[in-house]
Every structure is written in C-alpha cells, then in structure tokens.
Amino acid sequence: MRSCALLIASLLTLAATAQTKQRARALGVPFDGTTGPLNAITDVPGILVGYKTIIKGKADSLIRGKGPVRTGVTVILPKGKSLEGYPAGWFSLNGDGEMTGIPYIDDYGRGYGAIGITNTNSVGTVRDAIGQWNTKEFSSGNSLDFAFSMPIVAETFDGMLNDINGFHVKTQDVWDALDSAHGGAIAEGNVGGGTGMSLFGFKGGSGTASRVIRIDSTSYTVGVFVQANFGGRKFLNVAGVPVGKEITDLRPVVNMKEKKDGSIIVVIATDAPLMPLQLKQVAKRAVIGIARTGGWASNGSGDIFVALSTHQPGLKGSLEQWSTVHKEMMDPIYLATAEATEEAIINVLLAAETMQGINGNTWHALPHDRLVQVLKQYNRFNKR
Question: Least crowded by CB within 10 Å, which of 3, 25, 280, 342?
Fold first, then answer.
C-alpha cells in the first residue's frame, strides 16, 4: 500500500510540474499548426511515458563510480503496458550513435513493447532491463516464448555533466520508469534520459509536442518526443529568429580539456494507419524540424529517429489486412512531424533548468525574458 501511495504521489508531482512550467507556445513563440490538448506525444491515444531521473552529489570533481550523477532513463510505451506490436520505421541522419532493435524493424517493420532512451553507456543496461521487465510481466513461463522481445533503446551523451563511466543507471531504475509510465501531461527538461544533456550551448533534455491534422473527414494526431543534446550556440533559431546570435553570453562553463558533440533522438507516434515504409518516410521528416532550430548533423552527432503507428492492421486467418493513408495524402503527416519536432526541441529549452555537474561544468537555462525580448526585436512575438 505504501509503494502504491508513493507511486500516486510521484505521478501527481510529475503532472503538476508538467503543467506549471511555461512552454514555448504559451510564452509567445509563434508556431504553425494545431496542437493536441496537451501538445505532447501522449495526445496519441494509448501512449504512455515514464521517467527515472537520477541526480546525486554536488557539482564537484569527478570520481568515477561515485559522481556527480546527472542521468536517467525515459520509456515510451506505444501500446500501453503491453507487448502488443506496432508498425514502425526508422531513419538515421547521422549514425554516430546507437539505437537497438533496428534490424528487426528493417526486416519485419514492427516494434514490440517499450522504447527506451538513456545515456550512451547505459543502452545495454536499459535494453536488458526492458526485456527482463517484459519477461516478468508477460512471459507465459515457456522458455521459448518471445516476451523478452527486441527492445528499441537509443542514447545521447551526457558525459559533460554526468559520471557516465560510473554506470549509474541500474535495472531497477528502468523498472521504476516502466512502472510509473502514464498518459496525460508529462514533464520536460531535466528529466529521464535527458537529465544531463545540453542544447545549443544552453541546458537541454527531454521535450514533446503534437499536431492534430485532418485527412478527408478523419482527424489524426502526430506526437513527437525528443531527447535533445546537440548544436552550437550561434546556430540556434527560434521561430526563424537567430536567437543564438543575439544571446551570446551565458556560455557553458567547461572545466575539461575536451568537449564531445551531442546528438538527438526523436520518437514520432501517430494513430494514422501507416505501413512501415510510410513510417520510414515520416521518420525522415524529423530532419526538417531539427534544421529549423539550427541543427545540421555534425560529424560526431548521433541523429536517429523512429516513427510508429498505434493503428493495427487487421487479421483474417493467416492474412494481415492493411488500410493505410494513400501516398498522395501523406503531406499533412509530414508537415505535422516537422512542426512538432521543431516545437518539441524549443520546449526542451524553455523547460530545462541550469545544471552543474562533474568538475563544476555548468550549462545555463535559456532565459525566458531575454528570448521574448529577441522575438519582439524581430517582430516574431505572438501576443496573447
């Protein structure tokens, strides 16, 4: 009973946090498109998101295995807490990164169960932990069943703030994220796998957005979740405004000789009926949203995207029966993906808070008031 009460309290805290932080659109950043009610990937029916955020130790000299720790894990469950499959496609803009499970998507066009996002050195731990959770929750007891599945797990590098070689993400952390996964409003910024990330020389992390579109007489939702950890300050654009060239102070404090390029992982979900090859085309459109913010896939950046549909094909005997959006009608989905990816990245910047980590390294939050000032300067502020 106590653990149940703690879980409920944790969910209420997350929901309250998600609702009280001012997001980009509410601040006055002008974006195109119509959002879902929460402007989140959880606007797609059935999608759940869970986090485990691990912050330990004060900002100080790095001691491997002890900290400081600034990391975590994010899980996205496309079909709720189940092992039900879903059509999927993926795309790599730049492959200096990792995403497990992609050979299965390539050959069979499907994923099963939760998708995980974490730091670079914890991909194996998270993959195994998701598989173990699947087995614990869904195994028939037959050693030949496929409950472990082929988990999709991706990463970005948080070693500028986190003791990444201390391997602080454990199996129980992943299980905590899975057990606490929920729909509705979700937190952004310094949470889950995005805890220790940076973005355009500011603090980065986790973010989300959605779009509602109409094809013929039917409405569909496209939701995007990003773990954003990329970009140099001078490239940052917000709604077409060169914000990075206007806010040139608040530079990261890096007390290390070397600095590593970052990455971005994008998960796109929709309830539109799409086949795997169509979803691959959808995944490619994340590139447009990233480019609008100033990303350009530098050599050391791992930019990998997965797109999925929660709409299941029918089954009649041994035959799958697919009903899909016609090729000529795909443009609204492509545009929604680009728009939601762009907005999710900017939502990261608005939610993330200043963080210090190993060796006193510091990434500052993007100041809201100064962003508004720059948008007004360029006549791009959306007055409410």
Answer: 3
